[in-house]
């Protein structure tokens, strides 16, 4: 119901904007950055061919591989170990104020001439938190009891997520600040959209691969079936 309501709101408002909002002809700049879709893609191709942009795109496409498993799989594995989904959802509530405050705080450090320094500094801490997330998954069955999980376990999970959010937003705000800084003002919209799209892709494809690799890399043992393995989906079913 929630998704349906807001989906309807989005559809109505964007349709109203499309039909009712008129461009102010007097404020349109004399020199437009592109004249149509074809020109836009030609411009994007010419931007991405530049050696510095190409190198930067390769870096941001591969920079988040180390975080992919921790980001994509931790929540699923905690649920698999018995942590109730509704409890994990509630743990996200304290993160909301933090997510609002963090960009404001971090932007002070990314406003200088070298915004990517914050990105580099946050990276090792985020990698270490990936190991800590693995520890949380390993620890879950050790502390589980008949009534569920103790309060101190949830406290550690909340603290871990909070620290993870700090490193995540440090990298996110830094990369956005860098993209805004290096984008050519004349073609700023096209240039910045390209870099931000590549940045988003750099975070999404490793998570997809990590989720796909979960089953092949999971070690399973068959109980009560000597000489059989549970390495494949078919074998697990048997």
Automatic annotation (TrEMBL):
Residue ranges crossing the lipid bilayer per the database entry: 6-22, 43-67, 87-111, 123-140, 152-175
Keywords carried by this UniProt record: Membrane, Transmembrane, Transmembrane helix
Cellular component annotations (GO), alphabetically ordered: membrane
InterPro entries assigned: AcetylCoA_trans_1-like, AmpG_permease/AT-1, MFS_trans_sf
Gene3D superfamilies reported for this sequence: MFS general substrate transporter like domains
Subcellular location: Membrane
Topology class, membrane: Multi-pass membrane protein
Name of protein: ACATN protein
Designated gene of the protein: Slc33a1
């Amino acid at each position: 119901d929630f998704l349906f309501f807001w989906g309807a709101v989005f559809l109505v408002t964007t349709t109203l904007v499309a039909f009712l909002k008129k461009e102010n002809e007097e404020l349109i700049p004399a020199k437009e950055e592109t004249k149509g879709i074809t020109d836009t893609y030609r411009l994007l191709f010419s931007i991405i061919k530049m050696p510095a942009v190409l190198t930067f795109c390769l870096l941001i496409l591969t920079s988040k591989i180390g975080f992919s498993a921790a980001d994509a799989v931790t929540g699923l594995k905690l649920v698999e170990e018995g942590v109730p989904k509704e409890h994990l959802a509630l743990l996200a509530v304290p993160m909301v104020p933090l997510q609002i405050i963090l960009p404001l705080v971090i932007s002070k450090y990314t406003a200088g001439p070298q915004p990517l320094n914050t990105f580099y500094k946050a990276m090792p801490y985020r990698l270490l938190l990936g190991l800590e997330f693995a520890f949380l998954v390993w620890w879950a069955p050790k502390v589980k009891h008949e009534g569920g999980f103790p309060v101190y376990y949830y406290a550690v999970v909340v603290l871990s997520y909070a620290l993870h959010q700090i490193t995540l937003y440090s990298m996110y705000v830094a990369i956005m600040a860098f993209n805004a800084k290096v984008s050519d003002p004349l073609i700023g919209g096209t240039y910045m959209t390209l870099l931000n799209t590549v940045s988003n892709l750099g975070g999404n494809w490793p998570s997809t691969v990590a989720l796909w690799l979960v089953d092949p890399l999971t070690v399973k043992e068959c109980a009560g079936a000597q000489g059989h393995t549970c390495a494949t989906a078919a074998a697990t079913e048997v």
